[in-house]
Amino acid sequence: MAEPTRTPEQPVPPHEPVQEEPLPWLEELPPRKIVAELDRYIVGQEVAKKAVAIAVRNRWRRTQAPDEIRDEILPNNIIMIGPTGVGKTEIARRLARLAGAPFLKVEASKFTEVGYVGRDVESMVRELVDVAINMVRGEREDDVYPAAEARAEERLLDILLPPVPAAPTSPPPHLPGGEGRGGAGEKGERPLFVVSSKGDVTPKAPEAEQSAQDRWRRTREKLRQQLQKGELEEREVEVEVQQQGFPGLEMMQPPPGMEGPDFNFVEMLQEMMPKKKKRRTVHLHEARRILIDEELKKLVDMDDVVNEALDRVENHGIIFIDELDKIAGERGTVGPDVSREGVQRDLLPIVEGSTVQTRYGYVRTDHVLFIAAGAFHISKPSDLIPELQGRFPIRVELEPLTEQDFVRILTEPENALTRQYAALCASEGATLEFTPDGIKEIARIAAKANEQMENIGARRLHTVMTTLLEELLFELPDYPTKHVVFDAAGVRQRLATIVENEDLRRYIL
């Protein structure tokens, strides 16, 4: 189904009005539970977790407020201040996933002010709408997937065993009974007789036709059972598919960062052109995937998806603006800093609340939650223009990670690196184990590397773990033992070169 486009002449808002409803699971997420869920994946940073939990809960509270004051309750945008690798991005990403909200992460340093070639700040809202469209469409497809799968199975059976051709409804006009005497009635019933080659008219035996139908149904059920058991997956079948795109239209696509705000011209041309179909011979498992995709498109109403997606963006969307410190600097200087301040001034109306035109309709950003983050090593938040500072009233400072924090990161989260590498080794039939003193040694080396080189936070654990397990992962298919244990001595032995020579620069990336 074609994705609807809107024209600038339509009033605001152009999309269908929907009753503003909270996401059903938000009611079951009080701030304390949100923090508990974040604790499953992120170590420490309790102040930041508490701030974002309150911000998400306030969204549900706003939906419960009276209508006359609901629109006046604006979100309190948050700015996170802390060094790289302490969990700023992960907190926002996990929070959005937990709340089921459209989430987009952008880097402020990629934007340029109006009049310069590059990405404009409004593109972040358009990208958030695309994220919401994909999210809602995925949810709707999950709901109707069993029905699409059943329809695709019936179409596959029709390809494998075409239906029995129907008998003619009446004899030819030039034969006896052709005028309707003793043959088919005016309503097209099946004839009560058959005409032989000699012109003799004899009563038709319905048993022969019924027997053919019975054999066809029995064969179809056998094929259905074979399909469900996966016995025909490699069989080749011929399916009719719609041709994707047209040659030459790709050249008309705008360059990255210069996409049009109103509509996609290439998509409009594709919708206007006649749909071409071609027949392909593919394996049955591939044909099933193609047919399921076609049935999903038929079952999912894209107009309804667009309306719900726009509502989610306006009332539940989260935009995470990273590297905010890269566009901050002392005001009044000349050179590239002028462009930095220009980006801030372009960001200001989006964060304050404005109406952005997208190809799906107009989107208001008044109730979009903006979470900004930056290390602010060289600059500081006060270097931002005062108007932009005022749009981020909640400031949270994240603490640098210590050696003890690294120990917790390696052991407590459900997605800890030790568990990830253990799962990788398990795919080869091996078990990987880290003793408590081995984990402490890994944490000590990572903390030492951060002290002597650039402090990249928890990302240093990835470099240390990769170096530690490099030889094991390379030799694992032919490794002599399938039970590998790393204690403190084993860690020091593997990382002896790094520890003794302090040659850490190689392991920064």
What do these coordinates show?
There is one protein chain. The chain is of the alpha/beta class and 509 residues long. It has two domains: 1-161 and 202-399, Rossmann fold (3-Layer(aba) Sandwich); 403-503, Helicase, Ruva Protein, domain 3, CATH 1.10.8. It contains 17 helices and 13 strands. A five-stranded parallel beta sheet has the order 2-7-10-1-11, sandwiched between helices. Strand 3 (193-195) and strand 4 (201-203) form a beta hairpin. The longest helix has 38 residues, at 123-160.
Low-confidence stretches: 1-22, 178-189, 256-263, 332-338
Q: Average the pLDDT over all residues and give the rounded result.
A: 76
Task: Specify the helix fraction band.
Answer: 40-55%
What would the CATH topology of the largest domain be?
Rossmann fold
H-E string: HHHEHEHEEHEHEHHEHEEEHEHHEHHEHH
